[in-house]
Amino acid sequence: MIARMSRAVIVVDDDPVFRGLARRILNACGLDVVGEASTVRDALETAAALEPDAFLVDVGLPDGDGIDLAQQLTAMPWHPRVVLTSSDPDAATQKDVRRTGARGFIPKDELPNAPLEELLDTG
After folding, report:
1. Counting Cβ atoms within 10 Å, is residue 51 exposed (0-12), middle (13-18) or buried (19+)?
2. pTM for the complete prediction?
3. Is residue 34 part of a domain?
4. Is 53 inside any structural domain?
5. How many independent structural domains does the chain possess?
6. Separation CA 82–CA 86 (nearest Å)
7. What tens digit of pLDDT does each residue of 83-120 get?
8. CATH of the domain at 114
């Protein structure tokens, strides 16, 4: 039997409790959370250092807009996958998702039942 390789994900959210919850949900999907960031600046620095396969990005960050961050992340040379999230179910439109190159938007309360492996897995 061949084991599926886990994919490296960074969680970007200013709430440490949510980052912990997201880590547990992503790990349960077979994804490997290799880093966390609480700001746009931290996310960009962590991205450059770790070059992960994917990101889970909160729309509302203390130093900027997660939607703009998603566009910067998807434009990186290795083209990571990005999924946007927010506690506000109307924080990102389908137009925002398409414009940024993100794979989707999932309200935080729907995260446990969302198809995260499909959205974030590059394999």
Report:
1. middle
2. 0.93
3. yes
4. yes
5. 1
6. 13
7. 999 999 999 999 999 999 999 999 999 999 999 888 88
8. 3.40.50.2300
